[in-house]
Amino acid sequence: MPDLHIAVDTGGTFTDIGVRRADGSLAVWKVPSTPHAPDEAVITGITGALEREDAQPAQVTRLVHGTTVATNTVLTRTGARVGLLTTRGFRDVLAIAHQARPSLYDNRVHRVPPLIPDELIVDIDERLAADGTVLTELTADALIDAASALADLDLDAVVVSFLNAYVDPRHEQEAVAHLREQQVAPVVIAATDITAEMREYDRTSTAAINAYVQPKVSGYMGRLAAGIEEMGIGSRLWIMQSNGGLLNPETAATHSARTVLSGLAGGVVGAGNWARHLGLDKVVSFDIGGTSTDIALIRDGEPDETTAGEIDSLPLRLPSVDVHTIGAGGGSIAWRDSGGSLRVGPHSAGADPGPISYQRGGTELTVTDAHLVLGRLGTELLGGHFTLDRDAAHARMSEWGAEMGLTAEEAAEGILQVIAATMARGIRRVSVERGVDVRSCHLMAFGGAGPLHASDLIHELGMESAVIPPLPGIASAVGMLDAPIRHDFALPADRPDVFAELRRRAAAEMGTEDFAEQLLVDARYLGQSFELTLPLAQDQRAAFDELHAERYGFADPEAEMEVIVARLTATIGQPQTPQELLTGDGGDGGVEKRDVFIDGEWITTPVLDRASLAAGTTVDGPAILNQFDTTTYIRPGQQATVDAHGFLHLRRTR
C-alpha cells in the first residue's frame, strides 16, 4: 500500500486537510471547523480525506497538525485561572508592563489587561542580585505561608517567577517543588522552565501565557491523540509550533506557549521551501484568510525569525517565525468613519453570520461581497459545495454606495482599493522597514483569498512577481508536511561552557544526540536596550557590525559589543518527497466568460480551470482562474505562466 502524508490546519471557518501521495501529488479536502471541539473537525477531516483517497488509516506515515487552540484561548480570554508567586516588591510587573501606551494621545485607549489579575498574585521574601548573588534567602517558613495563600485562591495553575532567576533558577525550582508537594494547583511551573532569558516582564508574561493556555491545550492534545490512535493511523501525531518546527503532543501539552502561532507558521515554512525550490532570493509570504492577513519576509529560503513576539499585545519570549498580522481578510467589514471616509476592517464578519453573500444572516458588506459584485468571484465555490448570493450582495452594495454618491460597482472597487492599501502597508512593514527594497521581492500569495489580491498588490507596489502555489487554500497545511522536528534552547551567555550545557539540554529533551544544531547569540552595542540574533561566528564583531548596518543603516566601530544570550536550535529533518510534475490536459482551460468590472467598466473576461492548464501555458490578463480552494484574478497588463510543478508566476507586462 502506498504511503500517504496528511497535514491538518484548523482555521476559523474551515479545517483544511492536505494529502500528499507517494509520487508527490497533492489532494485537498475541507470540512467546517468545530470551534467548541476542534478535534472533532480534525478527525472528521482525516476520515473524509482517506475515504476520498480510498485509503486505509495504516497508510498514513506522516501526520502533522497546526492548531489554533492556544491562540484562540488567549484572544477570547477563556483560559485557566492562573496565580503568580513572585519576589516581594515585584507583584505589579505584569500590570506595569513596558509602560508603553498603545496610542500616546488617545486617552480612551487602554492596554489589554494581564492574564493574571492582582488578586491572584502572592509575593514572597526572596531576592537574587543581577549576578545571581543571594540577597535574601528563600526560607521554608516563607514557602509555607505562600503555599497557604495560593491554596486559598482555587487556582488551575501557578507560575513561579522570581527576580533574576534566569541567572540562577534554584529559588524558583525550590518553590515549585514545595507548591507541587502541597498540591496548591493542578499545574505549577517555573518561569525559567519556559524561557530562561533576562527581562522580567517578558519572561513572566511568557510563563503566564503558557500556564493560561496549558489546561486547554493539554486536554485537546489528549483527546486528539486518543482519537488518532483509535482510528489506527500508522503515524504518530506531530504538532506545528510557532518557530516553524514540529513538536510531539506530550511536549506541546506542557510547553503550550510554543503553539501560540502554530496555525500561521505552516504557511511561512511552506513559502520558504517553495522559495528555495524556485530559486527566489527575496520573497514576501502573503497568507490571506477570512479575518486576517499574515505577512513574513523570506530571504534565501529562510523565513525571518524573532525571539520577542507577542499575542494580543502580550510579550511572548520564545523563538517564532517573524510574522506581521493585519486585520484584513475576506470577511473584513466595510464602514465609514466619522468624517465619511471609506474604511475596511479590522473587524470581521467572521464565518457566522459571515458576508452578506453567505446567506447566513450577515448584514454588513465585506471584501468577499465586493469581489462578488465586481465579478471577480463566481457564485459557486469549493467545487459547487458553497454558493454565494450575488443579488443580495449587489442590492446592499447599491444602497450603501448611494449614501456616498457611488454606484454599487464603484463602491465595491473602493472597498478593494482601501483593503489593497492596507495590505500594501503590511508588506512594506516586513520589507522596506527592514532595509529591503520591496520592488526586488516576489509575493508568495496563498490562503483562500491570497490569489484574489496578488495582482492588485504587485501592481500597487511594483514587485517582481506574484507566485501562487498549486493548492493555495491549503498551503499552510502542505507547508507543515516538510517541517523538521525542532527544539530551541537559550541561556545567559556568561555561563562557562554554555553551548555544552545547551547541547546536554537538547539531547535530554529530544531523547537523542542525533540532531543538527545551529548555534546563535544575541548581541548588542554596550548601552543598547535591544539585541540582534545572529549565528555564532569566528569574527563575531564583524558579523554583528554587518547585520546592524543592514538592519539599521549604520554600524558603530567605536562602541563595545556585548553578547547577552547563547542559543541552540536543534532540528531533525523530515525525509523529503519529490515535487509533482504538472500534467495538465494541454487544453486552454476555458470554462466560460464572465463580465468583470475593471477600472470603471465591464469587460468580458475568460474564466479558466487552473487544473487543466499544462506546464508552459501563459494566460494574458484580464482573466480569472478557478480551482477548488481559491480563485486567481489577473489584471489587464499582466501575464500568468504555469511552471513544470504547477506554480503560477504572475508578472506585469506593462
From TrEMBL:
Q: Which organism is it from?
A: Corynebacterium pollutisoli
| Record protein name field | Hydantoinase/oxoprolinase family protein
The Acetophenone carboxylase-like C-terminal domain sits at 498-652
Hydantoinase A/oxoprolinase domain boundaries: 203-488
SUPFAM superfamilies, alphabetically? Actin-like ATPase domain
Q: Which residues form the Hydantoinase/oxoprolinase N-terminal domain?
A: 5-181
One GO molecular function term?
Answer: 5-oxoprolinase (ATP-hydrolyzing) activity
- Can you list the GO cellular component terms from the UniProt entry? cytosol
Which BP terms does GO give this entry?
Answer: glutathione metabolic process
Q: Tell me where on the tree of life, at the top rank, the source sits.
A: Bacteria
